[in-house]
Amino acid sequence: MKRILIIQTGGTIAMAIREKTGGQVSERQSNGLQKIAPILSEIAQIESRELFFKDSSDIQPGDWVAIARCIEENYGQFDGFVVLHGTDTMAYTASALSFCLYNLSKPVILTGSQVPLSVIRSDAARNLINAVQMASLAFNEVAVCFSDKIFRGNRTTKMSIGDFTAFQSPNFPPLAEIGLDINIKHTVSPAVQPLQCEAVFSEDILVMRLFPGMKPSAYIPMLDSGIRAVIISAYGSGNFPITDSYSLIPFLEACNKRNIFMVMASQALHDSVNLETYASGRIARELGVISARDMTMEAAITKMMHLLARYTNPYEIRDLYNRSIAGECAP
């Protein structure tokens, strides 16, 4: 029987319900896991460890490091890993883990719930059982398991606050779907080399979302605060204003002058950024802007954070960002 380590980090799945108020509170809820332990024990030999206990809105890069190190330290003793995590930043954590766990040959499955495990109509038990099932299979990915679907972690984004189908993978099909049987649609061959954990992330990054009326010049002073990369959430295929005081070009020129990496992402969830489509994109490319291609915003951000921390050569960072290193974008 496979050995699975459940790593608890908090989130709604572990919350308790206070009967008098009917509201969720961030209290450790161990009863829920105990209730479904008999079911889980039929799937695999389970061990559970509480790494920390946080609302996922409080998760920071240091927590990604802690999760990655926990997996590394226990890698030889377990066949798979399930990370219980809040939904708000789950896609960021999944993306970050996919970039820092090199040569992965065991499943790392993140899951959580929209309703606490202690509630009768919770989605938590179903998600957890599915996650443990996936973690017991030959499945060499960092993935998100939610509502009977398994998504590649760095292709996943949260789409709903209230629906049980909280996550989607806009530009990549589900890796597996769970019904009467588990239908695995995509698998990655196990790595030949041993696991390499490079859990490092730089926080010297600025994310800008364009909107009509935005004055990009107001952001230029921020560039002198140690920023090393800027991720711009632009329109459509990477389009942005180029006229009057709304033009983004002076800001891009300021970044270029300071040798700051510039990445153009899109506010549209589907399809890919193409800097050849419009005049603004061609100008951006000439100024050294990198396309985020079809990456989610979570992947675009965490990938750059990881590369900035691991490499010093700007040409190497640029080259690695321009190609897929963990299945996060089209080849």
Summarize the structure.
The chain has 8 helices and 18 strands. The chain is of the alpha/beta class and 331 residues long. The protein folds into 2 domains: 3-197, L-asparaginase, N-terminal domain (Rossmann fold), CATH 3.40.50.1170; 205-321, Rossmann fold, CATH 3.40.50.
Q: Which features does this protein show?
A:
331 residues; alpha/beta; Rossmann fold; 2 domains; eight-stranded mixed sheet; 8 helices; elongated
Task: Please provide a written account of the structure.
27% of the residues lie in helices and 23% in strands. The strands form five sheets. An eight-stranded mixed β-sheet has the order 4-1-5-7-8-9-12-13, sandwiched between helices. It is an alpha/beta fold. The chain folds into two domains: 3-197, Rossmann fold (3-Layer(aba) Sandwich); 205-321, Rossmann fold (3-Layer(aba) Sandwich). Residues 17-27 have low confidence and may be disordered. The chain has helices at 31-43, 61-73, 90-100, 124-135, 249-257, 279-286, 297-310, 314-321, and strands at 3-10, 16-18, 23-25, 45-54, 80-84, 101-102, 108-111, 142-146, 149-152, 157-158, 167-168, 176-178, 182-184, 196-197, 205-209, 229-234, 261-266, 290-291.
